[in-house]
Design brief:
Elements: H1 6-10, H2 15-28, H3 39-46, H4 48-63, H5 75-91, H6 99-110, H7 121-145, H8 149-152
Helix pairs in contact: 3-5
Protein name: GLOBIN domain-containing protein
GO molecular function: heme binding; oxygen binding
Organism: Gongylonema pulchrum
C-alpha cells in the first residue's frame, strides 16, 4: 500500500520521510503527552534567544502608546501555536494545497515586526534544528523501549 504524500512530494520529502514525520509527530503528541514533549522547553528554556526576543517585544508593546489595544500572547501560548502549526503542516502532507503556505505566510507577516528585536532567519533555523533533535530523541527512546534487554547487550 503506497500512501500519496502529495504536498510532501512537492516539498522534496520522500514518502518514507513524510511517513516517519507523521508517525513520530503523532506519537510525540498523543495523550498524555499532548504538549508535545520538549517543544515547550525548547521555546522557553533551551532557546534563550527566542525568550529574550519575545519578552523584549512584549515589553516594548506594553509601553508603546499606539499599541494599547493590542494584546500579545504569552510565550507559553506561542509554544502551543507553534505545536499546532507543525501539526497542520504535517497533516497537509496528504493534500496538494496552497492553504498551508498561505497560512504560514500570514504568520510570517504578523511576526515581521520582530526583526527589530533580533528575530531573524537564523533563529527559525535554530528552532528547526532543536525541534528535529527533540523528535530524534523521542524516536530513539521509543525504539529502545520496544527492544528486549538481551538485544541491547554488546
Amino acid at each position: 500500500l503506497t500512501i500519496p504524500f502529495l504536498q510532501a512530494n512537492e516539498w522534496g520529502l520522500k514518502p518514507e520521510q513524510a511517513l516517519a514525520l507523521k508517525v513520530t509527530w503523532s506519537k510525540l503528541c498523543e495523550t498524555p503527552h499532548s504538549t508535545c514533549r520538549g517543544i515547550n522547553a525548547i521555546m522557553d528554556q533551551k532557546n534563550k534567544a527566542v525568550r529574550e526576543i519575545f519578552y523584549s517585544a512584549a515589553f516594548f508593546n506594553g509601553i508603546s502608546e499606539h499599541r494599547k489595544s493590542y494584546s500579545i500572547a504569552t510565550l507559553h501560548d506561542h509554544s502551543h501555536f507553534f505545536i499546532s502549526l507543525i501539526s497542520q503542516v504535517i497533516h497537509s502532507f496528504d493534500f496538494r494545497s496552497v492553504d498551508i503556505l498561505e497560512h504560514i505566510d500570514k504568520i510570517g507577516v504578523c511576526h515581521a515586526g520582530l526583526k527589530k528585536f533580533g528575530f531573524r532567519q537564523a533563529v527559525w533555523e535554530q528552532l528547526g534544528e532543536e525541534l528535529i533533535d527533540a523528535l530524534v530523541v523521542q524516536v530513539c527512546i521509543k525504539s529502545l523501549r520496544t527492544q528486549k534487554p538481551e538485544d541491547l547487550k554488546t
